[in-house]
Design brief:
47% strand, 11-stranded antiparallel beta sheet, globular, mainly beta, single chain
């Protein structure tokens, strides 16, 4: 099973880093091996999460610049802006989204950072704009 370096931001603003190997967006929990306490594994409840940053392992992000800029490499991407309830805003793109799920994968347009993609929880959003259409998430409840 593939493991990924992640940074998990909880709804209260706490950020925890580590590695995951059993993350599935549809599951209510997954397990995190904590980076700062080697050998310690903790259970993460998806309902407590704001977003999960998956690190692509490239320290400067420069090698991904062409992939992020090329429509030929990402023909089905939707230009998107996410605005979290805490006021944080990011621009980038999404591919497939399903409002019946807990969240969606988002790729930030800022390729200078280490993040390849982010799993964003719908419950953490104020609104989302996809190809110019704004979707509000007030009182969002997973269905």
């Amino acid at each position: 099973m593939v493991t990924s370096n992640v940074a998990i931001e909880y709804g209260d603003g706490t950020v925890v880093e580590g590695r995951v190997k059993d993350f599935r967006p549809q599951r209510p929990v997954f397990h995190l091996s904590l980076a700062e306490m080697q050998g310690t594994v903790t259970e993460v409840a998806m309902d407590d999460v704001k977003a999960i940053w998956f690190d692509n392992g490239d320290s400067d992000g420069a090698s991904d610049q062409d992939a992020h800029d090329s429509d030929e490499r990402h023909p089905a991407r939707n230009n998107s802006t996410v605005v979290f309830k805490d006021g944080e805003m990011m621009e980038g793109y999404t591919r497939a989204m399903n409002l019946d799920h807990r969240g969606f994968f988002f790729t930030p347009s800022d390729t200078q950072g280490p993040d390849e993609h982010i799993f964003v929880m719908y419950s953490s959003l104020r609104h989302l704009e996809v190809n110019g259409v704004r979707i509000y998430f007030t009182n969002w409840k997973e269905g």
